[in-house]
Write a structure and sequence with these properties.
- With 801 residues, the chain is mostly beta strands.
- The chain is 4% helix and 51% strand.
- It has 6 helices and 43 strands.
- The chain has a 22-stranded antiparallel beta barrel.
């Protein structure tokens, strides 16, 4: 039995699942450089003088922040919850590039450290941390539907629709509400809510041109009231060329929403989101690569012809032609299609009892590809076939595609009972049963040109002599989630509000893993492992809010969070004789102060989160099998503040600041495997990778008489790329600006606007958030996101009435 899992995978020896939740190879690990809604049960925000009006939490999409007072051009909204909540409204979203993804939009929010390769927002290769928690530890919902990957929890920013369709984006650092349908939200929650259809018929259209041949064509049709139903549908086509290297990113999207108003107390909302993308990966760079080869270094654009008869097995990782082929850009692609549909039912069952329920279904299919090498020989019909011995001579470059296929149905429901003017009781349940089939297959690559025969991983597959497709591995995961919760909100006086509740979260993961499932020589090459793991915990929460007067609010909250290990975490550990990884959990504390007085609004929040069993993923270098270990407890503590000052005459200022310490509380123990000895690493007291201590944002906005001007800058402090804090990238400062002018209405044309956005005005070249952090930079170099250079986008839009 040849013992290795993912052959020729150039993975780092140990990298945190911090991996910053990086969606690098569509639902997989980034290929290393060859050169080396309603938020279901969202929280409504209210204006500061609404002390006696109890905020009723609801899944109703149209109620979220409708009554909230937006500030700073939509970058901030008044809130009253006993924890930090930041909402960015449609007003601010409309002033970013029309195709921006949410990681770019939330970058002004306190605590958020985001990075993306593409300023136009068309790549899944973007990520973020919030208060030191990585993206996979933050739950994400779209109109109340959970959209993080059900297996590894990673969110994929480009799959959630057009920014112009968002009514708001709400960030809740530290913890999600009890009624959220979150499987992996150990460190907070982000929700998207799409726009409500309008009462009147209209058509909104926008066309964008920009740097790197960026183009976006967008149209949204509102039907207006058609009896009790009103709807909208949007269609868009977005594309741009990569700003470094070769390749184009392109996304087609269709989104739709319909609201059926049964009567004044009951309604049903249908949502649909379809995303189809064909993208190329950007290469993450090490500091050494950026220094040696320059800021624009990427996957290669030239191909070296394959030697007659293929490479000898001994030539792999030695021959210059191998390295040229291994880094060829056409082999690093990211085609993916997905759709999400849901129904949001809001029903008033009696005078004091209401029901909110969201059934949903999510589907995804595509791959993240990378260069692989397989021993090929001519078959009986002249077509190449894969030899059973994977180490045989005659190795040819192929396009290996990691292909996950997801079927994800679920339902989330909540009952709300008003026990009087001062007391509200919520209870409900969430149930989900997702299925994921994941495997790596291979497609033929022309040995003389490097052009792959196909890219989607669903046809033209390379097979063995038995006619079955070659697969590196096949993994089937069945994840069942059950959650029940109850929460009470009591307002004994106009000044005091107490929230207390508890949820019970149960997760079952059934995993079937087969290595080389179709190999004609199963005795030497095929092995399997089945597992059935169950994880469950009680999650209490408590919040207290005191409003001494209409200008001030002081609050405190404490919440416990929890998540099961990733779906693929048991196979490698079992093969190496290691125990299965433990679930992650955290206790999050917050104390804060909100102040509003005329044109000035301030919010300051201090937080402390103690996280246990933070998981790290390792790679056994002899077997090439991933395993998961406990990286120890981590303590995240700090404070953040944000404020808005309205100077009058259309001029306002917005600023935010964050200070975060994310400290590992004990040394890392790397357990022994069958082939390696145990090791200790001095990680105690080190700052967690990807967590800058200081970040600040300052923006100025002017809007009057149809003219809107924005200028904003973000400072991000230095951040470490490895666990031992031996390497870090310097701090960076980016300056962005936008200007728009709304023309007078003319005939059927209304709100015709010409807008220009400029990103990274100072054209700073910088490395940011680590894409693949490592244990020690001296043993294995971390890779980083590469900030895009100066880019501009011109948009012309109008509304036809």
């Amino acid at each position: 039995m040849h013992r290795f899992a993912v052959r020729h995978r150039k993975a780092l020896w140990i990298a945190l699942t911090l991996a910053l939740g990086s969606p690098s190879v569509v639902h997989a690990t980034e290929p290393a450089p060859a050169a080396q809604s309603a938020q279901a049960q969202d929280n409504s925000a209210t204006s500061s003088d609404a002390q006696t009006e109890k905020v009723r939490k609801s899944t109703t999409l149209s109620t979220v922040n409708v009554n909230a007072q937006t500030l700073a051009g939509g970058l901030m909204a008044t809130q009253d919850q006993p924890k930090q909540v930041s909402t960015i409204s449609a007003q601010a979203i409309a002033e970013v590039p029309i195709t921006a993804d949410y990681t770019q939009i939330i970058n002004s929010t306190p605590g958020v450290n985001s990075a993306s390769y593409d300023g136009f927002g068309l790549t899944d290769s973007s990520s973020y941390t919030i208060r030191g928690f990585n993206a996979s530890e933050i739950g994400v919902t779209l109109d109340g539907v959970p959209v993080n990957d059900a297996g590894d929890y990673i969110p994929y920013a480009s799959e959630y629709g057009e920014a112009r369709n968002y009514e708001s984006i709400t960030v809740s650092p530290g913890s999600a509400d009890l009624d959220m349908p979150d499987l992996g939200a150990v460190g907070g929650h982000i929700s998207f809510i799409t726009k409500t259809p309008t009462q009147n018929f209209n058509i909104f259209a926008g066309q964008t041109f920009g740097s790197n041949d960026a183009r976006s064509t967008y149209i949204r049709i509102n039907t207006g009231d058609t009896g009790p139903v009103r709807s909208w549908i949007s269609i868009s086509d977005d594309s741009d060329d990569k700003w470094r290297g070769a390749g184009q990113d392109r996304i087609h999207r269709i989104q739709a929403k319909s609201v059926w108003t049964i009567d004044g107390n009951n309604s049903v909302t249908a949502n649909f989101n379809y995303n189809h993308e064909e993208n190329y990966f950007y290469m993450p760079l090490t500091k050494a690569q950026a220094t040696q080869y320059g800021y624009y270094y990427d996957y290669g654009t030239t191909w070296a012809p394959t030697p007659a008869g293929g490479f000898l097995a001994s030539q792999l990782y030695n021959d210059p032609a191998f390295f040229t082929q291994d880094s060829y850009y056409r082999l690093y692609q990211n085609p993916f299609k997905s759709w999400v549909t849901s129904l949001d039912g809001e029903f008033k069952l009696s005078e004091n009892l209401s029901l909110s329920v969201i059934p949903y279904f999510q589907f995804g299919d595509g791959n993240g590809s990378f260069a692989g090498f397989l021993p090929l020989q001519s078959g009986a019909n002249g077509q190449p076939i894969v030899q059973a011995n994977q180490y045989a001579d005659g190795q040819y470059a192929v396009l290996e595609a990691y292909r996950p296929i997801t079927y994800r149905p679920g339902i989330n429901a909540k009952f709300t009972l008003n026990l009087g003017l001062t007391d509200t009781l919520d209870w409900g349940l969430w149930y989900e049963r997702s299925r994921q089939l994941e495997y790596i297959d291979a497609q033929y690559v022309d040995p003389n040109t490097g052009v792959p025969q196909a890219i989607w991983g669903d046809n033209h597959l390379l097979t063995y002599s038995n006619g079955l497709p070659w697969e590196n591995y096949s993994e089937y995961d069945l994840t069942t989630v059950k959650k029940v919760f109850v929460e009470d909100s009591w307002t004994p006086t106009d000044a005091w509000t107490l929230n207390a509740g508890v949820a019970y979260l149960y997760t079952e993961r059934v995993n079937q893993f087969v290595l080389y499932p179709n190999n004609p020589d199963p005795v030497d090459w095929t092995s399997s492992q089945n597992s059935d793991q169950r994880y469950h915990n009680f999650l209490p929460t408590l919040g207290v809010s005191w409003r001494p007067n209409e200008n001030n609010q002081i609050y405190y909250s404490i919440t416990r969070t929890f998540r099961a290990p990733q779906d693929s975490s048991t196979y490698g550990n079992a093969r190496l004789g290691l125990p299965p990884p433990l679930p992650e959990s955290a206790w999050s504390n917050e104390v804060g102060w909100r102040f509003t007085d005329g044109p000035l609004t301030l919010h300051t929040d201090a937080y402390l989160a103690n996280m246990g069993n933070r998981t790290a993923v390792g790679l056994d270098q002899d077997t090439f099998i991933n395993y998961y270990i406990n990286a120890g407890p981590v303590r995240m503590a700090g404070f953040n503040t944000e404020g808005n000052l309205d100077l009058g005459h259309g001029l306002s200022l917005y600023s935010s600041y964050t200070y975060t310490q994310s400290k590992v509380k004990q040394n890392l123990y790397l357990p022994a495997t069958e082939d390696t000895a145990a090791e200790f690493y001095n990680t105690q007291g080190k700052q967690f990778p990807g967590t800058p201590r200081n970040m600040s944002y300052l923006g100025a906005r002017y809007s009057q008489d149809g003219l809107t001007l924005n200028l904003n800058g973000k400072f991000t402090g230095s951040e470490y790329g490895d666990f031992l804090n031996t390497e870090r990238v310097p701090s960076n400062f980016t300056l962005n600006g936008s200007a728009s002018y709304e023309l007078p209405d003319y005939g059927v044309l209304h709100k015709t606007t010409i807008a220009i956005n400029a990103l990274n005005l100072l054209n700073r070249h910088y490395l940011a958030l680590p894409a693949s952090p490592t244990l020690s930079a001296e043993e294995s170099s971390p890779t980083y996101y590469v900030g895009a250079p100066r880019q501009w986008y011109l948009t012309i839009s109008t509304t036809f009435l």
